[in-house]
């Protein structure tokens, strides 16, 4: 865990978005958008909802074995950008995305791409735990079954166990695999959803405020888990909690009104931000 980072939180007056827009005309992202070990490479991403532009020319890599935190004021486009990474914006009829996103060198914004295997490769964990109304076992087994990942019941059993172990849930549920997933606590349900994502062999896991519905203890467990999952996956996480971003991520990206203002090593973003907008946000002047 990245405990060295201290989040400064001195509230010195509220600045409105309009003030900041007038004061800080945005030019280009500060910091290093590339990762030496990139798993995903996003370049010049623009997203519109009908005529309203929500993401403006954003470029960012997600590296192997790293957690990238996306922070910024409400409505700045964090979730919209995250949803580009596995084409979830395709499900919103008025959304239009352009630019380039490569996963292991392969363009994923091409029209011909089958989004079903893509969304297994780039899995998503949502704000509110959303287990299927099925047993704990079936919640995990469903994905591997439809993707044809196992050939026997024994293999499937193993995969269910491995996924639950990796999500830190096995010991709590191994004796009640046939009980409903919805009967678990909120934190357990979120780990079940993480196990479900893991079961279909993702390379990248997207997390959209995965702890916002959880209590502090469940949150701490998920944060520990995110740190462990980094050994196997690339992780992009949207969070409103700067403390959480500081604890779990290696790189942090600060978004503002659809722009990626600044990105860099998490410690640097929180201790020595280069852009005034970033500084204003992390010191609590805005957001
Ligand atoms: N489905 C949608 N249809 C129309 N506009 C949308 C849709 N989703 C998001 N937007 C708009 O796009 C902009 C960015 O929204 P987005 O949810 O990506 O921001 P965010 O930074 O994740 O916000 P929050 O922190 O509040 O979740 C906002 O102006 C929002 O109103």
From TrEMBL:
The record's SMART domains line, in alphabetical order, gives: AAA
Q: Name one Pfam family in it.
A: ABC_tran
Q: Where is the ABC transporter domain?
A: 40-282
Keywords associated with the record? ATP-binding, Nucleotide-binding, Phosphate transport, Transport
**Alphabetically, which GO biological process terms does the record hold?**
phosphate ion transmembrane transport
Whose protein is this, by species? Thiospirillum jenense
Protein name from the UniProt record: Phosphate ABC transporter ATP-binding protein
* GO MF term set: ATP binding; ATP hydrolysis activity; phosphate transmembrane transporter activity
Is ATP-binding there in the keyword field?
yes
Question: What GO CC annotations are associated with the protein?
Answer: membrane
This protein's source sits in the domain of life called: Bacteria
Q: Which InterPro entries match?
A: AAA+_ATPase, ABC_transporter-like_ATP-bd, ABC_transporter-like_CS, P-loop_NTPase, PstB-like
Higher taxonomy: Bacteria, Pseudomonadati, Pseudomonadota, Gammaproteobacteria, Chromatiales
The record's listing under CDD domains reads: ABC_PstB_phosphate_transporter
């Amino acid at each position: 865990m990245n405990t060295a980072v201290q989040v400064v939180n001195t509230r010195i007056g509220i600045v409105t978005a309009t003030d900041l827009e007038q004061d800080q005309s945005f030019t280009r992202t500060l910091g290093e958008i590339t990762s030496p070990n990139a798993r995903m490479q996003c370049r010049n991403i623009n997203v519109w909802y009908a005529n309203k532009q929500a993401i403006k020319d954003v470029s960012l890599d997600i590296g192997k074995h790293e957690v990238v935190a996306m922070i910024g004021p409400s409505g700045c486009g964090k979730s919209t950008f995250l949803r580009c990474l596995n084409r979830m914006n395709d499900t919103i009829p008025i959304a239009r995305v352009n630019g380039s996103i490569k996963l292991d060198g392969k363009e994923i914004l091409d029209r011909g791409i089958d989004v079903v295997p893509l969304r297994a490769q780039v899995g998503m964990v949502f704000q509110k735990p959303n287990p299927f109304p099925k047993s704990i076992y079936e919640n995990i087994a469903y994905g591997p079954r439809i993707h044809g990942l196992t050939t026997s019941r024994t293999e499937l059993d193993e995969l269910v166990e491995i996924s639950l172990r990796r999500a830190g849930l096995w010991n709590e549920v191994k004796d009640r695999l046939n009980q409903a997933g919805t009967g678990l606590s909120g934190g357990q349900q979120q780990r079940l959803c993480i196990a479900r994502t893991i079961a279909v062999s993702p390379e990248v896991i997207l997390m959209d405020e995965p702890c916002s519905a959880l209590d502090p203890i469940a949150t701490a467990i998920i944060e520990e888990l995110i740190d462990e999952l980094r050994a196997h996956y690339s992780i992009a996480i949207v969070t409103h909690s700067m403390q959480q971003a500081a604890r779990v991520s290696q790189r942090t990206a600060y978004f503002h009104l659809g722009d990626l203002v600044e990105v860099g090593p998490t410690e640097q973003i929180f201790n020595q931000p280069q852009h005034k907008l970033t500084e204003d946000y992390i010191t609590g002047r805005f957001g």
